[in-house]
Amino acid sequence: MLKNxxxxxxxxxxxxxxxxxxxxxxxxxxxxxxYVENRTSISENANVLAKDLLDSRISVYxxxxxxxxxxxxxxIENFETLSKNIALFKNRLHxxxxxxxxxxxxxxxxxxxxxxxxxxxxxxxxxxxxxxxxNQDILKMANIGKDLxxxxxxxxxxxxxxxxxxxxxxxxQLTILGFxxxxxxxxxxxxxxxxxxxxxxxxKDGLQSFFDYLNRKSDxxxxxxxxxTNEFGTMxxxxxxxxxxxxxxxxxxxxxxxxxxxxxNRVSNGWYSQLIExxxxxxxxxxxxxxxxSMIVTTKERFEKIDEILQSYIxxxxxxxxxxxxxxxxxxxxxxxxxxxxxxxxxxxxxxxxNLQNGMTLEKSSQIxxxxxxxxxLSSNSAAASLEQTAAALEEINATVINNTNNVVQMSKYSNxxxxxxxxxxxxxxxxxxxxxxxxxxxxxxxxxxxxxxxIAFQTNILSxxxxxxxxxAGEAGKGFAVVAQEVxxxxxxxxxxxxxxxxxxxxxxxxTNEGKEISNLMISGYRELLDNIERQAVxxxxxxxxxxxxxxxxxxxxxxxxxLDQQTQQNASIASKTQDIALQTDTLSKEIVKEVLEKRxxxxxxxxxxxxxx
Length: 615
What we know:
Elements: H1 7-65, H2 69-91, H3 96-126, H4 132-214, H5 231-268, H6 283-314, H7 333-474, H8 479-598, H9 605-614
Keywords: Chemotaxis, Coiled coil, Membrane, Transducer, Transmembrane, Transmembrane helix
InterPro entries: MCP_chemotaxis (IPR051310), MCPsignal_dom (IPR004089)
Organism: Aliarcobacter cryaerophilus
């Protein structure tokens, strides 16, 4: 029956089975999910009761920490709310054990509140002064709270188990239903798929035989089974009709293909002078043959043109440019080849232009560089010589400054000694003035003594005159005495003259003594000024000494800098010499580059030469 049944009708069986199974699943799921949702809601309410119990006990703890009426009322409110919630929860239960747990929990809450009210009133009145009165109540509250917690947790655990059992039952039912559905689908699909697979296998065997023939795996074709009236039978009849037509066409196609294979093999080896001559009733293949022949001819012409261009490039003539055909495919191989060859030509021309421009520029620059390096060599050598002279001069200046510093130090020592000597000279001038005073006094004494001597000489002269008179009176007897008197007179005269000379000398000595005294006073004043000048000179000498030391340090630093600059100048001179060698090599290389580029022919060469020469 299924053999002649259409494939669409066979496949439509699967949606019918699927809809039937879905209806059954929806019915079972609707009945079970209501029960599961009810159990889940009851479980959530049980969790709320556990949370309310925890809040109530926390409020008791807060009341114990901070005793006041508000905290007490909060405890009572929490436990009364918990009692009401348990009563509402009990109405949703059906298991006697759980209902009994709810009733016992409500009784425990009532007892707990009574004990709490008693303890709270005592605690509010006595304010923790008599703990023994409500310690027993606290212990009872703790035990009741523990029992209440155990009952609510047991109730919660039992509710959770009931919910889990409901979910497990729903899962089991759906699993069994799924297994049955899979089994039904498997049986139906196996039966229908075997029927379809059998038809497909028959059709496949026929097509496989035809394709083996097409693919040269077999030299005969088996006809397809077209005995059925379904889609496969219809297709088999059409295929059998076309197999005969295709078989005749294939024979002709093979002749064209064989000849095309020979031609394409030669084309692949670079021979474009042979074309495909065979014909076939297969018009697309004929068109393909003609297109291949046209491609061979066109490709040959294009390659010959490309070869002509490349031959020009081989001969260093880069002026020809390869033109793309108007029918060339955008992005095609030929367009890319033309574009690539032109880009190659542009790159080579650009490279040659750059080489020519760079070579000529490098040639001019190298010549300028050689000249500048020569100037740099001369300047470096001159600078090095100047720096050597400067360093030598600085060495001499440094030595001179050091010598001057030492001389200034020595002058400072001498200035101190001159100061001491001047002080001694001032003291000696004072002593000299004192001595002059003493000399003046002694000269005055000498004057007095000279007056006495002058008087004695005068009296002696008178006596000698008297003695001469007496000797003359005595005659011959007094001649000897007269001689003595004459000698005495002469002695008196000489004594008077000597006294007069001594007086003159003493007067002169007195005059000179006064002058010496005045000079001593002037010397004392001069020594005073000399001491002041020596002190100022000593200050200046110390300042000069400090400046000389600073000059010595500065000149030493300048000398070090000049020495370093001299070393760098020597290095620069060495580098300039090496740079000259490099510049000469660069000049030679640039001339070779220019010569080599000028031997090649390309667009823009003359413009570059004129442009470079005009600069």
